[in-house]
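User: Okay, second chain of the day. Same drill as before: sequence in, structure tokens out.
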Amino acid sequence: MRPLVVIAGPTASGKTHLALELARRVNGELVGADSVQIYRGFDIGSAKPTNAELGTINHHLIDTHEPDERVDAMHYAELADAAIENVQRRKKTPLVVGGTGLWLRALTRGLLDLPAVDTALRAELECEARTQGVETLHRRLAAVDPISANRIHKNDIVRVVRALEVFAQTGTPLGALHTQHKLGALRYRTLFIVLESSMEKLTERIEHRIQKMIASGWFEETRALHARYGDTARALNSVGYREIVAHLKHGVSKEETLRLIRKSTRLYARRQRNWFRGEPDVHIRADANALEYDPLAQRIRYHVQA
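Assistant: Same drill. Structure tokens below.
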């Protein structure tokens, strides 16, 4: 199997900074694993690295898709496979970096084989969501698939519809299928690095990041994206963006919006921490500030050359 290096962790854990420092030491290039950074225009709220931060380091799978396109985990794995092959073919080291756990699992191990989309069923469910409200569908999902309903935000129409599709097609809740599913065989010989820190430290970093994002124009960015794409941009339902959209559409005060952004970001970071704690085959777990770049870079060189 081809060697691969993955740097993962919750939001604000320092993944991008670490990946850039390592890339400079190992002749590397970054391959994104972030379900928001992949979309053009979602810059501030996704903490997308700037050109100044990247410098001469190439970063693949950011800014590659329009916001009204859909990229799911399996599609991401195909895109990442191609990017990794491209980097390796040029005798460089790909460093996959991001916090979207399902995408990383799809890349490194594959995912559960689910039935193909039934276009007629999907159209019917999407029509119901528009006419009755997605929250109505979410309540229906909670009745037949409480595991998925607990994991999926009540306004996430894409995932709510998909979970109801799977139940209608198979008669088995999607949550139960995921619970029963065993991880697939390894697709890469992966050196898996997960950045961990206490929730207290993470909360401090999250607060600093949110303040920086607001000052950089996050509200204005979201207003422009929503004006252009409306509700067709899936990423507008991601953490932070959805709270600002509610501010724009429903008049939620800015103070309340900021409170909700802080709360949802902390909850998201906690879910990410729990996800990566459950991932097998993780080789290094550490706070980003506790890692020494040069020894870690040497370990990456050994891994790639082995």
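The beta strands are 3-8, 28-32, 59-60, 93-98, 189-195, 284-286.

User: Thanks, on to the next one.
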